[in-house]
Each structure stands twice: as C-alpha cells, then as structure tokens.
Amino acid sequence: MGGVRTAGDLVARMQLNRGMRIDAAKKYVAESLGVAVSDLNDPIVMGEVRDDKNIFWISEGQTTVDGIAAKYNISKLLDLDINCVNRFLKNTGLG
Amino acid sequence: MSKILTRFGDGYKVELTEDEVKADIEEGCNDAASRAGIEPLARDEQEHIFEMFKNQDTLVGIERGREVVMTYDGMSSKIRRAHIVIDRVQSLQVFERALGADTLELSHIDYSFKPCKPINGFELPDLDLLLNSTVAPVYYGAMPNLGLYSQPDGPCPNPADLLPLGKIDEARQAYEEAIEHAVSDIVFVASAMYEAGVDGINIDTVGAAGDADFLTALKATEILKEKYPAMGIEMGMAGEFVLGMHGNLSWRGVKLAGLYPQDQVRLAQQAGATIFGPAINIVTSGTLPWNVARSVTFCKACSEVSEIPVHANLGMGVCGIPLTLTVPVDALSRATKAHVEICRLDGL
C-alpha cells in the first residue's frame, strides 16, 4: 500500500496485532485519522495527514517526528498497544 | 487469431493462442479443485484471468481501492542478495522509506530458529536500533526447518536414514523428538524478541519438512499466544499440501498430513496466528495462465474460510510467480492482480 509514504504501515498494524481483515483494517484506520478510505493510499493526502498528526512523513529536508515518538502518536491515534512504545514508557518511567 | 505472449513456470517465454490460454486456465482451476476438494473458479473469474493475459501491456495493476499491504520473508537479506553491501538496519530503512514497505522483518542470514538461538543476544541490539529508527511494524522472522534437528546437523536420529531401513516407528519417534527441540527454540527466540519490543513473529516456510514441521509451528504459536496474547504471529507455508513425512500426527484432533490451504488456515487461526500465508507450488513446465489459475483457486478457497488476514506468498516459485531469481514484471503483476482481485486477499 505504500507503507509510511501512505497509510500502509497503519493498516498493516491492525492486521498484525488485531487480526483485522483488509476492509475492516482500512475502515478503522480511515476513521481514526478522519480521512476517507480512498485517501489511505494517496501519498499527497497522507503526507499532509501524517505531518499534521506527527506520525512521520517523507519530508525531504524538513523536520519530522520519527521512530518511537511517531509510534507513540500512532498508538494513541489507533488506540493500539505498540510493544516497543510500551517498553519505552516502562523503561523511562513515563508509562 | 492473434497470439498471446506469456511464460512457462520457469520464466521462459511462450506464445499461445487465445483458445490455448483459455484451456490452460480451465485446466489449472480444475487441477486445484480436484486435489483440494474445492470449487473451481467461476466462469467470470476465469474470464478475468484470461483478459489479464490477453492484455499485452508489460504491467497490469490492481483496481483502484483494492490495494493490499505487504509482508516479507528474509527481508534483511534481500538487498544484499543483489550484491549491495549494506547493513541490515539500513536495508530495512531503504525498504521502509524508499520502497514504501508496509512492514519490516529483521532476520538472520541463516534463516531458521535453531541457528538464531545461540546468536540471539547479538540480534537484540540490531532490533533495538531498528525499532528506534523506523515507524512500520517490525517482525522477527525465521523458519522452523525441522531438518536441522536430524543427525548429522542435529541431535535426533535422521528419519531419512531410518525409513529406507523399514524403521518406521523409529523414524516417527525421531520426528516427534525433533518437534520438541524446535518448539523450544522458536519459543525461546520469539520470546526474547517480543520482550525486546518486536511487533510480531514471522514463522515462515512452515511444513517444509512435512506434517511434523507444521505441528511444530502450531505448537509454538499456541504457546506464544498464551504467553503474549498481544503478539502478532504470521504463519507462512512452504507448499500447498502438508506432506505426511510422519503420517500420523494430529493437532486438536485434526490429522495434519494432506491438508490443503483452506484447512491449514483454520488450524493456524485456532493456534493464535494473526496472519496466514498460503504458498502454492509452481509447476515449471506449466504455463503461467495454468499456474496462476491453479494458485488462485487454492487461495480463494483459503481466503473464503479465513477469519484472519490472508497474505498469499507471491514469491519466486510460488503462487504463480516463475521460479527464477529475476522475476519478469509482466508475470509478477499478472499473478498479483489475479490473486488480490479474485481471492479478496488482505496482503501479499
């Protein structure tokens, strides 16, 4: 679907960790982000959405929220436990 | 009547008439249906495959809105296979950021859980770096590869030595002993990786050593899911049919030898897998219309009964992709389109 260049990574998370099939996973992600399902694989729309929501985008020379920080925001947006985020919170005493 | 340029399962080109392509598609469907006891593709689905092959454009594409996500096996060795010397973490960053991969998979070059166990402590820093520098879900993947537990490579008597001597009970005991070792190794490695932050485990090429190999994956999945209920587990198969190398193994009352994808997936989801990957063998002497139609028939039956996402293993030599290191894009795109659109797959 395009991974972090679109919303492919987010749909994949719902499949891997919630066992959702593709249509349910796309619908869940679209509703969580406040976009149409048809926008999920659009790199133009998703670039702006990802930038607005601080979940990493291909920004070419501009700053972006990356790594664990981006995954923390994804965890909140999707209401999904992300293993490495939980581990980070535990290790830092933030969670 | 104009000819249609397509390929054999080994990748070499062949020109066929329209009638020959239609006949191959029908025969491929019927072959899968008769082997697995499933329905052949409907006429309109066979026609859909025919139109893909009749279209002589180099690339064909998925209908807009039907895009699916992708998972991988042996991902961190793929770029190095092209003789590009690159670190594993960097190669996965290239996959994520340049190539748009939906998921990432850290893996050891010796892609089996047994060799991954003693070097586990040296895998963890790479995993840590990867998790800190990427955004997509991260798997750790390897194969059960039960063959590694047989002498001279492993601790168990070798069934391939025992069977020709007529020592069937001893061969079966050897498989059963190997299962326990392999389950222990998978659980050890997967637990360490999960406790270090990985999102999921990819148990790949399951069934390569037959029914004992499949039972290993089911038992390991069951234990891991009990231990870590939120763990994502993908189970990808080695072939379309579980070989009865032991011949008398069951899991939850279901005999494993002889199972086809529509039954394999039921057991995988019962064990706790969150994604299942059917793998349909290519027949190198068969044409791609025949191979694609055959593979789609198997995978459609699997997808229809599945409650979990199905990612068909479209790779070199499986699911209608020619058995070659450099896969022609005309072949790849046609197999992909046929599987996604007809089987209603969730991923590849």
Short description:
Chain B: It comes from Desulforhopalus singaporensis. The complex is a heterodimer of chains A (95) and B (348). With 95 residues, chain A is mainly alpha-helical.
Give your account of this protein's structure.
- The complex is a heterodimer of chains A (95) and B (348).
- The model of chain A has no long low-confidence stretch (mean pLDDT 95).
- In chain A, 58% of the residues lie in helices and 0% in strands.
- Chain A is globular, with a radius of gyration of 13 Å.
- The termini of chain A are far apart.
- Chain A is an all-alpha fold.
- Chain A has one domain.
- In chain B, helix 1 runs parallel beside helix 11, helix 4 packs parallel to helix 6 and helix 8 packs parallel to helix 9.
- Chain B has two domains: 103 residues, no CATH class; 206 residues, TIM Barrel (Alpha-Beta Barrel), CATH 3.20.20.
- In chain B, strand 5, helix 9 and strand 6 form a beta-alpha-beta unit.
- The mean pLDDT of chain B is 96.
- In chain B, 45% of the residues lie in helices and 11% in strands.
- Chain B has twelve helices and nine strands.
- By secondary structure, chain B is an alpha/beta fold.
- Chains A and B meet through helix 1, helix 4 and helix 5 of A and helix 6 of B.
